[in-house]
Amino acid sequence: MNLLITGCCGHIGSYTSQNIHKIKKIKKVIIVDNLKSNRFHSLFNLNKKTKKKFLIRDISKKNSLNDLKNIDYVIHCASMTNAEKSFSKKNEMYRNNINCLKTVISFCKKNNSKLIHISSTSVYGKKAKIVDETCEKKYLKPQSPYADIKLKEEKLIKKEGRFLKYNTFRFGTISGVSVGMSFHTAVNKFCFNAAIGEDINVYKTAIHQYRPYLSLKDAFKVFKFSIENDFFKNDIYNALSGNYTVKQILNKIKKNKKNIKVKFVKSKIMNQLSYKVSTKKLEKEGLKLKNNINKDIVATLKLLRSQKRLKT
Ligand SMILES: NC(=O)c1ccc[n+]([C@@H]2O[C@H](COP(=O)([O-])OP(=O)(O)OC[C@H]3O[C@@H](n4cnc5c(N)ncnc54)[C@H](O)[C@@H]3O)[C@@H](O)[C@H]2O)c1
Predict the structure, then answer these.
(1) Which has the closest alpha carbon to 292: 215, 219, 229, 197?
(2) Ligand 1 close to Cβ of residue 78 (< 6 A)
């Protein structure tokens, strides 16, 4: 079977491309990216265990995938993803991400390809003890243009549902190392700052707020489970390894790196309130995610280990 991975140079896409041989039924992979993120290095030394072909494509362009055929599954990772920067790039992000999804939907419809669509748990945003996929509308309160666009993507794909086999997964914030990893999200950013001895900027109100996190290993487990079990129910599922407060994340970092410096800052998205996200729906389908994000923290800090020697 053949697979298309969009956004293959990014944090999740690069990990998926590198590990795809673990899904035995995939024999050939087409990987595409527009390289706008300049993560050329994601293409270095890709293992040869599964046949891969890289194509530079801006998939926000309607016809950009027209020449591809015989694709059974699509893992759609191509997206602009920086939530904090999305306030100043709202229109560009909207155009890019919605158009990318439209291209992918129309490709999947034409080719009968099954689609894995990634949304985000940041579509929730109202204070709640625990939220699940069936929550009332009032709990869907995106606090950034990025999260708002994710909700619009979910609606768009649902509208097309009759003509498509897909699942939408609301991923928690990703932790873990990949060749194309980014550092604009909580765990990675904190690890980076801790490693180079810089202040860890924490949104003032966020320190005791719960948020969902997803280890890259578990993200891949979601893809593997979907493809191996042909799990495409035209539905939405939360996917996370655990809910943690920022304080808990910082404590995990502290265990591995002493003397971290925390500075409280203001942010437009700091009015997000505390919420835990339920994992029950996916568990009922037989998929339990429980990778330890501690290990991701250790691995990320290890990447920057040499920084210690530079300290004066
Ligand atoms: N990383 C997280 O914490 C997280 C959490 C929840 C959901 N997600 C979602 O998972 C998906 C992948 O996230 P990621 O962290 O790997 O993102 P990323 O920013 O690391 O990578 C995205 C990749 O998409 C590419 N891209 C962007 N626009 C494109 C276009 N028009 N044509 C072709 N390629 C394009 C970029 O060049 C980049 O390499 C996104 O939909 C993101 O919103 C990520």
Answers:
(1) 215
(2) yes
